[in-house]
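User: Fold this; tokens only.

Assistant: Input:
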Amino acid sequence: MVQTISSKYIVGGSGVKTVKATYASSARAPDDLDTKLLRAMITKGIIEPISSVFVNLVNADFTAKQRGLRILEERIVLDGSPESPLDFIQVQIANVESKFSSTTSESGEIKVEGRVKDGIPHLTRVGSSEVVMAIGVDDQPSKEALKKIGEVLAIEEFVFLKL
């Protein structure tokens, strides 16, 4: 989910120098929530689409440092069950353009947020907009189908993403 959040909603990423990841967690001690994998997936989602470098858990921190990418992490401690230690993750990326015109702030930042419910990751927010629905399809919709979707009054904005 984090890699998808990081790379599929932005256009380019070569200007990205700082990413802030906020983890809302019921973990009580710093070691209760190991964020190395999440940090690696954020790095992978930003660097791989704009380079030929393959990013993995082993080389992610080194690759980010080598490319001048700083990943700042913040943990918010919530009351909750230790069995489900991560409530949500929010990733804030600066100096990007979004595929969704209404999601980028005036300062050029985009925030995306996701949650895990029943073991399944869900994208819940892009910019200031809540994600009401995400639909997976087998093939790219026709231009006619996309036009009909765009005509639905309840849909404020949509985009087809090839993952």
